[in-house]
Design goal:
about 120 residues, Protocatechuate 4,5-dioxygenase, Chain A, mainly alpha, 10 helices
């Protein structure tokens, strides 16, 4: 694949490409989410979310996305979905909740869409 054709794939409507630039942008957010692999990190976040986010140097936009449980916002701010899954678990967000966010639907609408697709 030539470089020019790769660049064409960077503009996919509704998609945030996770590249080196986004990895740098989301470093603190992703590092924080990685810390949730241990119960101590999860407990510390739940006890003091603001202090925990500050400890990892999250930007204001990242903090707002975390506060709002806005997974798409976190992705736009450099979050990697594999790390964000740990945070989604803390917030008790299901895969269907995240799918609803990604498609602009409520969780119930997204679940119904999945059921309807399975019937076809």
């Amino acid at each position: 694949m030539s470089h020019a054709s790769f660049d064409q794939h960077l503009d996919i409507p509704g998609t945030t490409i996770f590249d080196g630039e986004m990895a740098m942008k989301g470093y603190g957010l992703n590092k924080m989410c990685y810390s949730f692999n241990g119960a101590q990190g999860r407990d510390a976040f739940l006890a003091d979310p603001e202090g925990y986010m500050a400890k990892y140097g999250l930007t204001d936009a990242q903090k707002d996305a975390v506060r709002n449980k806005d997974v798409l916002g976190m992705i736009r701010e450099g979050g990697n979905i594999y790390y964000l899954a740990k945070l989604a678990g803390i917030f008790k967000l299901s895969v269907q909740d995240i799918g609803g966010q990604q498609t602009g639907m409520t969780t119930d609408e997204f679940k119904q869409k999945l059921l309807d697709q399975n019937k076809q």
